[in-house]
Amino acid sequence: MRVGVDYYPEQWESSMWQSDAEKMAQSGVKLVRLSDFAWSKLEPREGEFTFGWLDHVIDIFSRYGIGIILSIPTNCPPLWMYQSYPEIIQIRPDGKRLQIGNRGHRCVNSPVFVKYARRIACEMVKRYGKKKSVIVWQIDSELEAYPCCCDVCKEKFRKWLIEKYNDLDSINAAYGTSVWSGDYSDISQIEPPTAYPKAWQNPSLCLDWYRFTSQSAADFVKEIAELVRLENPKVILTTNTVFSNNTPDLYHLFEELDFVSYDNYPPISLEAEEETISSHAFELDMMRGVKGADFWVMEQLSGPTGSYAYMSPAPKPGQIMGYAMQAFAHGADAVLHFRWRTAATGAEMFRHGLLDHSNVPNRRFYEFSELCKSAVKLTPLLSTRLIADIAIVYSPEIDHAFKIQPQVRTFGYMEQLKMFHSAFSHFGANVDVVSGETDLSEYKLVIAPSMYVNNSAVTENLYRYVINGGTLVLTARSGVKDANNNCIIDTLPTVYKELAGIEITEYDPIGEQKHVIRDFAGNEFSCHAWCDVIQATSAKAYAEYTDGWYRCLPAVTMNRYCNGIAYYIGTVCGLDFYESFASNLMMQTGIPRLKDLPRGVEVTTRTNGKDEYIFFFNNSEKDVSIPLPKPMYSVIYSIVEDELQLKPFEMDVVRK
């Protein structure tokens, strides 16, 4: 495992570069990321390239044996480009041009911008593409599904729609434009969604707009990747992603890249309420699931966050090391901390790095140095991977569709996924978060929450999985919409009726109200947000409502279908239900469970096919003791242990 830092030499006096590299090497840094926002320093005037300073920086780090991630800095074009070519600036949904001066304001569909992006990429790869110390290339930074409404994007969107639907009549039919007299009589009338709330606008248009903007980001990555590989086919390419209001479809974004990179900022303050999932374990497992392979963390929490909002508290003792180790436990092969030194200028001067403005090593820096030493001990694990018996299906389109038309207060798509993930993690299970089109045949258990927008390929995949003996869990708001984001004219859960063995005669969007359900064993649990009124056709009740006007009707069902089993949860519950349900499912499917783990302890296992390494992470603010079933060798402390004593945010790794 390797630990690194994000470094911005262009922001510091050149006299500091040598001492910084030396201090990094002494602390155990193995990787450094450079140049992701340095375009104006590399091309200060149009066509005038000044690579000398970057040559010098690369040479310095090369001498210390520190591997370099070199970024193609297309997120922030120089001001001369915005001034000379204002057409590259994004247009907001309200029709106004974005005010430049921040970041990410370029339109990735603009031919002018793409021309200059290709040129800086080409110049960089020609110069550094064969340098051995440059081991990875990053394209752009934190790309989004930008909702740019410039004329280029409008025209490209219209062409995209014609390619998808063939003609205007088909678009009108797909969108149901007769509502509110919205029929298109000419292609030029099709506009991107406006600044009005999305819930007020055509949901089919809104979802297609997301698909288009997401594909635009992926197409930009593909174009730059193809250019770079044309210059040097051996380069290794990635880009870094982070969750935002405009998160693109990550499965498409990384399709042409070698591995996934993620910017990981787990919460410093843990929520006292068990119902609030503070851990970033779900996000890390999602990153591993994007390409079904290990990933990198390109930015990691290093200090109090700030600049875009009020400053957060400082990371508590153990969090700098613990959260990096948590990432390793979930499939990260490298973790780079943002940033080496806190900026003294610009908007991010209070988004703290490892070194504060004093430039004097502090508690966080020394903890980071200890992390570098511990990571070296994990080097044998680079050849290992996580193998999971459980998969949770995630859909970017469904996630976005719920944002377009929120269903009811307290009902959240991502929150459901995280609840299931937390419940299985409580018993020490590895969990994959995957696309619905992934081959599911190797999983003993698949959770597919709220399959709201029907994708026929995904639906067929879920049926096939159950027919061949799999155990599937569906939840409320499945089968509601067709692929165009229009309601399906059929009894819910429509396309899943046969599989689930139920029909939903009515539903009650109860929001913050609460009801109670009782399972087959007599255990009672609170439910909220949504209650499906279920009529079982071939299914059996797993749990029933105990109150309300649907008292004694099924709330959770189980249906034997061909060689497999399909469960349906018609409501939303607290974590206690999901943990009870997860325990029963794991027992029924033969998935091993670790019992009596202290609250907050996360367990994952990585294997190379011969040896298994078990990570125990105490993601809590209390000391915990964990008895082991037999004495095991600690990779971190080089001793044999029969019981683990973990401080808050401490990790231990034992070889099974």
Secondary structure blueprint with pairings:
Elements: E1 2-6, H1 17-27, E2 31-34, H2 39-42, H3 52-63, E3 67-72, H4 79-84, H5 111-128, E4 134-139, H6 151-165, H7 168-175, H8 203-231, E5 237-238, E6 240-241, H9 250-253, E7 261-264, H10 281-291, E8 295-300, H11 319-329, E9 332-337, H12 363-377, E10 385-386, E11 390-393, H13 396-404, H14 413-425, E12 431-434, E13 445-448, H15 456-467, E14 471-475, H16 497-500, E15 502-519, E16 524-536, E17 540-545, E18 554-561, E19 564-569, E20 571-573, H17 575-589, E21 601-607, E22 612-618, E23 624-634, E24 640-646, E25 651-655
Parallel strand pairs: 1-2, 1-9, 2-3, 3-4, 4-5, 6-7, 7-8, 8-9, 11-12, 11-13, 13-14, 14-19
Antiparallel strand pairs: 10-21, 15-16, 15-17, 16-20, 17-18, 18-19, 21-22, 22-25, 23-24, 23-25
Helix pairs in contact: 5-8, 8-13, 11-12, 14-17
Describe the protein in words.
By secondary structure, this protein is an alpha/beta fold. The protein has 17 helices and 25 strands. The chain has a ten-stranded mixed sheet with strand order 12-11-13-14-19-18-17-15-16-20. A nine-stranded parallel sheet has the order 5-4-3-2-1-9-8-7-6. A six-stranded antiparallel sheet has the order 10-21-22-25-23-24. α11 packs parallel to α12 (363-377) and α14 (413-425) packs across α17 (575-589). It is globular, with a radius of gyration of 26 Å.
